[in-house]
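Q: What structure does this chain adopt?
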Amino acid sequence: VQLQASGGGLVQAGGSLRLSCAASVNIHNINVMGWYRQAPGKQRELVAQIINTVSTNYADSVKGRFTISRDSTKNTVYLQMASLKPEDTAVYYCHALFSGSYWGQGTLVTVSS
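A:
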């Protein structure tokens, strides 16, 4: 499974960005897909995930601001981020559980104050 993440960039606080993660396989078969992030000097942390195409899970710090979704026709998972804060600045990684654990390359999100 290959995961291609995109959509990062520089945005002002309060702004929005949408991250995309394109998978090389039919994501309908992937049990869990999600986004993690790693800020400088910090451990990688879960941001949001979709489980079995039905349920979603969010970190408390992003609830109400971020939305994870998937489009099976495009084999893509999205992370819509709104009301961004400087503390959201991090490298964001796409992740999938499908007969193993797979990571995409990171995409940098920088939120300026």
